[in-house]
Amino acid sequence: MQEEEFDNLLKVIVVGNGQVGKTSMITKFATGDFTGQYKKTIGTDFMEREIQVPSKGASIKLMLWDTAGQEMFSEITRNYYRGAGAVVYAFSSVDRDSFEAIEKWRHRVLEECGDTIAEVLVQTKTDLISQAVMTPNETESLARKLNLKLYRICTKENKLVDEVFQYLSEQYLDKTAATGTSTNTTATKAPPTPSKAGSSREMPKSPVHDVSGQEATSPKDKFKLEPSRQRTGGRKDARCSIL
């Protein structure tokens, strides 16, 4: 298998309960495609995309690991957490259980990856915000409790999807720069284990971003962001049926 050389390579895992929209989010980010058909992820799935990080004057290749949310696959997916440099914790606006499970998912990730991993909290399906089963105050309180930035995204309309991964990339590069850790990696088709990041855990200055691109003041703010570019081809099975 031919090897490729990348200056910066980041393994990102996306975790959360089943049917919250993890696969839809990854597919939209990696390929620009969206489908409303739900297909259960069995174990893990993998996609990739290279992006520019203008604030750091760098490019980075993201190796995106989509993990199954069903408990029956928990031991399988935990094996894929190791070596991750960043994680997305995802919950659905219309699934209370997925929201309440976030702390459990975080505990599992930190057990395997340590507390230096770059993290972000993501609320999906904001096109259904009128049916939300948790309040904005509850989601913001959870973000503060866990010391995480919160993004409220809409994959169907491609709102704030790119921004989630831009933020994680910036955090990862900041952490590796702070510790002097090299991000130079040689990769084949499947991602290797990237070096872990630094230990900085300051509270984000703007801890909540909704689909308006502004710090959240209302769950019904209007959409303003541009759609992402279509990038690499990849598997296009969707993770949820309504995003």
From TrEMBL:
Q: Which GO terms describe its molecular function?
A: GTP binding; GTPase activity
| PROSITE patterns the record matches | RAB (PS51419), RAS (PS51421), RHO (PS51420)
Keyword annotations: GTP-binding, Mitochondrion, Nucleotide-binding
**Low complexity bias spans:** 179-198
Which residue stretches does the UniProt record annotate as biased composition, category Basic and acidic residues?
A: 218-243
Give the start-end ranges of region Disordered.
179-243
- In Pfam terms, one family for this protein is Ras
| Keyword Acyltransferase tagged | no
* Highest taxon listed in the record's lineage: Eukaryota
Kindly indicate whether the keyword Mitochondrion belongs to this entry.
yes
User: Do you know which NCBIfam families this protein is assigned to?
Assistant: small_GTP
Give the PANTHER family listed for this entry.
Answer: RAS-RELATED PROTEIN RAB
Q: What is this protein called?
A: Uncharacterized protein
Natural source organism: Plasmodiophora brassicae
